[in-house]
Amino acid sequence: MNTNITLRDIAKALNLSISTVSRALTDSYQIGDETKQKVVAYAKEHHYIPNRMAKSLKEGKSRSIGVVVCSIDNNFVAQMLDGIDQYCTDHNYQLIIMQSKESFEQEKACVNLLYAGGIDGLLISPAYQTTDFDYLIDLQKSGLPIVLFDRLSDHINTHKVASDNFKGAYDATMHLINNGYKSIAHISSNTKLSMATDRFEGYKKALKDSGLTYREELVKFCDTSNATSLHQNLEKAIQELMALKNKPTGIFTATDQLTTKCLSLINQLGYQIPTDVALIGFSNTDLADALHPSLSTIHQPAFEIGNLATKQLLALIANKESEKYDTVLLDTTIQARVSSQKN
Amino acid sequence: MNTNITLRDIAKALNLSISTVSRALTDSYQIGDETKQKVVAYAKEHHYIPNRMAKSLKEGKSRSIGVVVCSIDNNFVAQMLDGIDQYCTDHNYQLIIMQSKESFEQEKACVNLLYAGGIDGLLISPAYQTTDFDYLIDLQKSGLPIVLFDRLSDHINTHKVASDNFKGAYDATMHLINNGYKSIAHISSNTKLSMATDRFEGYKKALKDSGLTYREELVKFCDTSNATSLHQNLEKAIQELMALKNKPTGIFTATDQLTTKCLSLINQLGYQIPTDVALIGFSNTDLADALHPSLSTIHQPAFEIGNLATKQLLALIANKESEKYDTVLLDTTIQARVSSQKN
DNA sequence: TGGTTATACTAAAACCTTTTAGTAATAGTT
DNA sequence: AACTATTACTAAAAGGTTTTAGTATAACCA
Question: Which GO-annotated molecular functions does the record name (chains A, B) (predicted)?
Answer without folding.
Answer: DNA binding
